[in-house]
Amino acid sequence: MSAPLGLLLLLLGLPGLLGGWPRYEPTWGSLDARPLPAWFDEAKFGVFIHWGVFSVPSFGSEWFWWYWQKEKREPYVKFMEANYPPGFSYEDFGPLFTTEFFDPNQWADILKASGAKYVVLTSKHHEGFTLWGSKYSWNWNAVDVGPKRDLVAELAMSVRNRTDLRFGLYHSLFEWFNPLFCEDATNIFKTRQFPTSKSLPELYEIVTKYQPEIVWSDGDGNAPDTYWNSTGFLAWLYNDSPVRDTVVTNDRWGLGSICKHGGFYTCSDRYNPRHLLPHKWENCMTIDRWSWGYRRNAKLDDYFTIEELVKQLVETVSCGGNLLMNIGPTHDGRIAVIFEERLRQMGAWLKVNGEAIYGTKPWRAQNDTVTPGVWYTFRPTEGKVNAIFLNWPVSGALELGEPQAKLGETQVKLVGYKEPLKWIALGEKGMMIALPQLTLKQLPCQWGWTLQLTDVK
To answer: Pick from 64, 53, 212: which is nearest to 124 by CA?
Structure first.
């Protein structure tokens, strides 16, 4: 090889070498080998936002259009007959998606107060309506119809200007009633009109325009990843996109890919296995037990309490997962006060107990074998084991069956309380810890407490 040619080849390879990233091939074998950017595992907690034209009827579910028109479920058909004129179509809801109270700065401040480290907004759900002015969604997007605003751009700017949260976007691959998708489905996905003219161009558009650090894919429409060309898109995302170094993706890239291929695994909605998994995973769940979108007819009991949400977070993080907790804003752009309260409550809890959540690793035991409702996390650099207990014992003594204490070395601290706690060793059966006698106002927080254990095995 001549010297000039060798130098040229070296220079051509230099950007990849200097950037520290290899080139990924459009195959699952290559893409699945990409290390997950470290920030995601350290973040632990994010907020999901389901917002779209489905927020206008705000009845039953964000699957309103499908349940009404395709499955013709009785409650949805009756709701439309009782409240809208004959011939009213789902598209007629578009202009009613007004967002007049949408204040992206206020949303960003609420998100910041929640203690979340990332946010994921539905840029497009299965209804096909895009929250940005997509070139590929003519007259069915938020700039042309309804708000007449680029909702994605506004929220992205506020989140980036006012918080340290990472900004992410959800995108549905398929659309229920898009004629091109329906035609491809009729052809058993032997034709690919819809992904080439609609879905893939949209994905490239949102990544290039808004540079999301999470691309949260969903809705494969029972089509394989080869139909969607998911591996081709992901190879571009990891190799050449503006977010190639920091972007994370999930596992919903085509029939059969969930819990098998992609970045972190989601496996199913509301996935919470309560045991350690070998692969990074996320529990995406919603504060409203029955719907991801806003429901005007929801009752108080339909919402998870803060105690239940803290339990979800603690269980998830102890087992190596992240919690993605969903809210559904209203058609006029408000985060309902029940959602705001839950977010602020979670933030208040994390302000005290965040050290037991953010940046932690799973310990050798995920939950206690003696006392129910005790979950463990670990900080390897400091050698601290966190025992998060969800029920304050009436006796004032907490028995832990997992940690083995060392006399004269082990220290126990209640996070948010100054004095070290007294304890006795129970040999191989663990330890007994004397909790301080505190009034309700003296408790560091109200919905779960953290013991920091140093020098235990």
So the answer is: 53
133 within 8 A of 144, measured Cβ to Cβ:
yes
Judged by DSSP in three states, 367 sits in strand
Give the β-pairing of 45-49 and 321-327. Answer: parallel
CA gap 267, 326 in Å, rounded = 17
255, 223 contact by CB (below 8 A): yes
Nearest residue to 218 via CA among 310, 91, 324:
324
The continuous run of DSSP H or E covering 378 comes out as strand 374-379
pLDDT in tens, 33-83: 999 999 999 999 999 999 999 999 999 999 999 999 999 999 999 999 999
Query: What backbone torsions phi and psi does residue 394 show, to the nearest 5 degrees?
Result: -60, -35
CA separation, residue 349 to residues 51, 113, 124, 311, 354 (Å): 26, 11, 32, 12, 8
Q: What pTM, to 2 d.p., does this model score? A: 0.95
| Rounded CA separation 343/351 (Å) | 12
For the ranges 63-67, 266-270, 325-329, the lowest mean pLDDT is seen at 266-270
b/e map 39-52, b = 16+ CB within 10 Å? ebbebbbbbbbbbb
**Where do we find the tokens 């809890």?**
349
CA–CA separation, 218 vs 235, rounded Å? 18
Q: How many helices (H) and strands (E) does the chain have?
A: 14, 14
| One-letter-per-residue 3-state SS of 255-272 | CCCCCCCCCCECCCCCCC
In angstroms and rounded to an integer, the radius of gyration of the C-alpha atoms of the chain is 25
pLDDT band at 85 (very low <50, low <70, confident <90, very high): very high
- How do 166-172 and 118-124 pair as beta strands? parallel
- Asked if 120 contacts 214 with a C-beta cutoff of 8 angstroms, the reply is yes
Q: Which two tokens stand for residue 42?
A: 């350290």
* Per-residue pLDDT tens over the stretch 196-229: 999 999 999 999 999 999 999 999 999 999 999 9
